[in-house]
Each structure stands twice: as structure tokens, then as C-alpha cells.
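FIELD: query
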Amino acid sequence: MAETEDRGVAIFDLDKTLTIRSSYTPFILFAARRNPARFLYAPGLLGMAVLMLLGIVGRDDVKAAMWRAVIGGMERDKAEALGAQFAKHWARTALRPGTRDALAEHKDAGARLVLASAAVDIVAEPFARLLRFDDVVATRTEWDVSGKATGGFVGLNCYGDEKLVRVKTLLGESAPPRSAAYSDHVTDVPLLTWAHTGYAVNPHRPLAEVAAAHGLIVLDLDAPPNKADAV
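FIELD: result
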């Protein structure tokens, strides 16, 4: 812990913070296109998505159903290879213009970089390696004894309060003095206010509306490289 305090730590959400759009559904489609038989599940998944929009089923239920349909039963090496291929594509095509500069600023200062995301580990981990993160906190894929994906997750979706729990498990109960957290979404307010400095990155409306009340700095990472400024 003392080493982290000396170096500082910067914690970044992934989807719509470092990137311009969420990765989960694009990865599901990316994986399904490489195994077209999985599209047989598409009508049922579309129905669940509609039920989620109507508030009848929860986000976690839809996420789990999509995962079971497309990844369930897949061998671990194949699933991880798909995740790595997708992460390379996503890092090339979906980053906000100011993302690399924001990460480099912390990295050059010697900070420990932590990716904390609801994205699933087989995508989040290779993505983090590509961008030189030191640690990853993500939703964890469950594997059976034969090394195949069960179609479920280990523990809870790494989202909202659960994300902060995971970050505290990694870094300690109290935030390091030189800590910064970055997110676009209001569900990450617990993490943003736990860190010494919280940044609302290109925030969606609910986060933008409460940013000032929580002492958050609003940051635009869609500015040209080297010009990502707090506003």
C-alpha cells in the first residue's frame, strides 16, 4: 500500500469513459459472427432487451443471458482468443481522442493504472494490457472443471457499488492520498467520491447533473490529443 501511495493511482472505467461506446454488445456480436449458430438465440435475447427497457428484467439478467447464449460451453483458449482479438480491434477503433494522452500523463508520472470495469475479464484484461494498465478489476468469467465457460460469472457484475468493493479489495479500504478515478456514469459516483479526486468524463446527463454537488471535475476526452482539458 505504501508503494501505491508513493506512486499514486489512477482508476479508469472502460465503456464510454475511455471509449466512445460500450463494448459488451459489440463483443457479443463479434463472437457470434465467428460462430453463426449462436444467432439462433437472437430472437430471445432481443425480447429480453425489450423487457429490460420496460423495466421488467434487470441489466444483470440480460447481460447473463447474452453471455450464456454466445460464450456458454466455449473452450477457455478459444474464448480468451476472441476476447484478445476484440480488444485489439476496440483499442484501435473505439478510443476517445484524448484517452491515450490521459493515460500517458499518469503513467509518465509513475502512477499505478487500474482499469475498473463491468466489462467481462476476457475483454477487459487484453484491453488493459494493450494500454499498459497495471491491474484490472472486471466481471469474471466462470469456467467449469473441463475449462469451458459455464455461461455464468464468478460473483456479481462489476458495476456500481460492487465495483468500489472490488477496487477496495485491490487497493485497501481507504483511498490512497494521490488517487484519481474517472468515469462517465452516475453509477460510479461511489468510486469517484471515494478517490481523492473524481473526474466525470464526458458524463451522461445524470452524472453531469450531480457532478458539482459531489465535487467532481468534468473532463472532455473527445478533445483533440494533448488538449483534453477539465471544464
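FIELD: remark
Residues 76-93 form the longest helix (18 residues).
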